[in-house]
Amino acid sequence: MKKIFSKLQKIEDFILFLAFVIMILGSFAQVVNRNIFKLGISWLEEISRYSLVYMALFATEAGLRDNSQISLTTLTERLGSTAKAICHIISKLVIIAFSAVCFYFSFSIIQTQIMSGQVSSGLHIPMWIPYSALPLSFGIIIMVQSITFVLSFFTGKCDDIIDKKEASE
Fold first, then answer.
1. At CA 147, angle to CA 63 and CA 19, rounded to 5?
2. What is the pLDDT along the chain (169 residues), one digit of tens a residue?
3. By the 8 A CB rule, do 61 and 137 touch?
4. ∠ CA(126), CA(128), CA(129), 5° rounding?
5. Radius of gyration of the chain, Cα coordinates, nearest whole angstrom
6. What is the spatial distance between Cα 155 and Cα 139, in angstroms, rounded to a whole number?
7. H/E/C letters for each residue in 19-53?
8. Other beta carbons less than 10 A from residue 50's beta carbon
9. Are 11 and 4 a contacting pair, CB within 8 Å?
10. Whose CA, among 42, 125, 144, 154, lies 20 to 30 Å from 31?
11. Which residues, at least 6 apart from 88, have a Cβ–Cβ distance to it below 8 Å?
C-alpha cells in the first residue's frame, strides 16, 4: 500500500505543479498581452482557468491526504480516543461516499460533452478535456481515502497514517 500511496502522491504532485506553472504563465502572458501588446489572444485566460480547476480539484485530495483541510475540531478534541477514532472513520466513509457519487456522475457529464461535440471558445479543444478533472480527481480521492480507511480500521487511527509513513522514508 505504501507504493500505491507514493505513486498517487507523485502523480498528484506532478499534476498540481504542472497546472500551477501553466496557470501562472498563462495569467502572466495575458496581463503582458493586455497591457503591452494588445493582441486578441483569448486562449491565455482560458488555459489559466482550466489549470486553476485542475489545481483546485487535485489540491482537494492533497489536503485530505495531509489532513490540512479546514475542519471543526471543537467536538472531536473533547472526545476520548475511541470516540475520536470512530468520528474519523465516519468522516472517511462520508468522504468516500461523496467522492464516489461525484465520480459516478462525472462520467455522464463527460459523456454529454462528448456527444454534444462542444469545444472551448479560445483553445478550441473538446470540453470533455477540462471536465476530465472531475473523474480523475475524485477517482484518486476514492483510492487514497479508501486505503486510509482500511489502514485506520486496522490501527484504530487515521490522523497520522500517512505522516508516519512519510517520516519513515
1. 35
2. 678 778 878 888 998 999 999 999 999 999 999 999 999 888 999 999 999 999 999 999 888 888 777 776 777 788 888 888 788 888 889 999 999 999 999 999 999 999 999 999 999 999 999 999 999 999 999 998 998 888 876 775 544 444 444 444 4
3. yes
4. 80
5. 20
6. 24
7. HHHHHHHHHHHHHHHHHHHCCCCCHHHHHHHHHHH
8. 23
9. no
10. 125
11. 76, 152, 157, 158, 159
The residue among 111, 116, 115 whose CA lies nearest residue 132 is 111
* Reduced 3-state DSSP string for 44-91: HHHHHHHHHHHHHHHHHHHHHHHCCCCCCCCCHHHCCHHHHHHHHHHH
Q: Tell me the three cell numbers of residue 36.
A: 503591452
Strand partners, 126: 119
Instruction: Quote the pTM value.
Output: 0.82
What one-character DSSP code corresponds to residue 123?
A: T
CA 131, CA 126: separation in Å to the nearest integer? Answer: 9
What SS3 class is residue 117? coil
Question: CA–CA separation, 59 vs 49, rounded Å?
Answer: 15
Q: What share of the chain is helix, strand, coil (3-state, %, to 5)?
A: 80, 0, 20
